[in-house]
Specification:
single chain; 221 residues; alpha+beta; Apoptosis, Tumor Necrosis Factor Receptor Associated Protein 2, Chain A; five-stranded antiparallel sheet; 5 helices; 24% helix
């Protein structure tokens, strides 16, 4: 199924329209999303090699990958060091929650029925820094062990495969929530559970805080 979807993407098909179930599954599953991008890159490079004499490139329709790409700020705190900072305003975060697959449910995000299926993507971004081409994605879903909390997973894909993911450290600030995690060799970082009351207003009806994500080299790298 993955190979079929990737091939159709390279042929210019509208993936969300033709494969809606797969598209929703990809948005909710970082591993499937990474597999799609990696397979897409491999097949695209293969096609470029076979069609090198042609001057025109195919009209790939990959705009569906650009659902939530916020602006990033790149900082260089010292020689040889870098840090990328993303800020999502409270309005942006509220919009993301409202556009989740259960947005039609009663507007109380603290209720257990919200985010109990696919979860949602909090942030997606592509950034080039220090010669690296990174695809960054932060996902959240309701914790099955602790329903009033969200599980957070960060996935960082290095297109050029030049980065040691274990040397990267990420931190999140979101309302009363603050956490730091080091990425593993697969480019993944799982954060401690986030209690919904730390980011919602008193009635639990609206998101009350913006989100900040920092990505940088780990201190001991």
């Amino acid at each position: 199924m993955l190979a079929l979807v990737v091939n159709d993407a390279l042929e210019g098909e509208d993936i969300p329209r033709r494969y809606p179930a797969f598209y929703r599954a990809m948005l909710a599953n970082p591993k499937l999303y990474r597999a799609f991008l990696e397979t897409l890159t491999i097949l695209e490079e293969s096609r470029k090699g076979e069609l090198e004499p042609l001057s025109a490139s195919p009209g790939y329709r990959l705009d569906f990958l650009n659902a939530i790409f916020p602006q990033s700020v790149i900082e260089y705190p010292a020689a040889g060091q870098w840090r990328v900072v993303w800020d999502q305003s409270v309005e942006q975060m509220e919009t993301i929650f409202q556009q989740s697959n259960l947005a039609g449910q009663p507007a109380h995000y603290s209720e257990e029925k919200l985010l109990d299926d696919d979860g949602l993507t909090l942030l997606r971004s592509q950034v080039t820094v220090a010669g690296l081409e990174l695809d960054v994605r932060l996902d959240a879903w309701r914790s099955p062990a602790n329903p009033p909390a969200l599980e957070l997973l960060l996935a960082v894909l290095d297109y050029k495969a030049q980065l040691a993911h274990c040397c990267l450290q990420a931190s999140i600030q979101w309302g009363e929530y603050q956490a730091t995690a080091t990425l593993d060799r697969y480019g993944l970082a799982r954060f401690p559970a986030l209690l919904l009351k730390m980011i919602l207003d008193e009635p639990g009806a609206k998101v009350a805080a913006g989100l900040r994500l920092n990505l940088a080299a780990a201190p001991d790298s």
